[in-house]
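Minutes, project check-in
Item: structure for the 208-residue chain
Input as provided by the requester:
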Amino acid sequence: MSLKQTDEEITITAEMLDAERCRFTVDRPVFPGGGSLLYVNREKAKASPLADKLFRIEKVTAVQLAGSTVTIAKKGTEDWIEIGKKVGKVIRTHFQSEAASLASGLATGTSGDRTLEDQIKIKVQHVLDTQINPGVGGHGGSVSLLDVKGTTVYVRMSGGCQGCGSAALTLKQGIEKAIRQHVPEAGEILDETDHAAGRNPYYAPSIK
């Protein structure tokens, strides 16, 4: 089965892997930072807002999040077309609600007395809370916002992320990508973690 669902903002492509599993590819990260997480029951899925919502769909038995893909396992003989529509709706609603929440926070907290730095801080913190830390938390890691100066964003990695051999990849492909998607006004993004050699800028516009 190959099914493509598109609206103004979100495109989802579904591919049936077998009778029990279907992979949904989304046009944005569902699990930033590399690696993957597999949830095999609803209780454990509560650690991820998206997985928790997907487990509310009847017949869903497992949810795996990896990069821009969501793989669903189901029980029973219900057609994947019908379940796929429900999964697509959940994914789309999830991202739309995140965007609405962000917009609402900015509308109530970024009036004329708010500086650009304040606005960026609010947006970046929201991305870390909803997009980044639920993912890296599964590996015992955490990413915190240290400061915003002008449009430069300073972050620090801790726990399992600090000193990790794949930290640079996590930062470049996960954290930076998520921040750039939701906070386009952010400028340089700098990692202030002491992984071993101190300050490590992982995004600079002048570097290709």
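Outcome recorded: Confidence is low (pLDDT under 50) at residues 1-8, 109-113, 160-166, 195-208.
No further action items on this chain.
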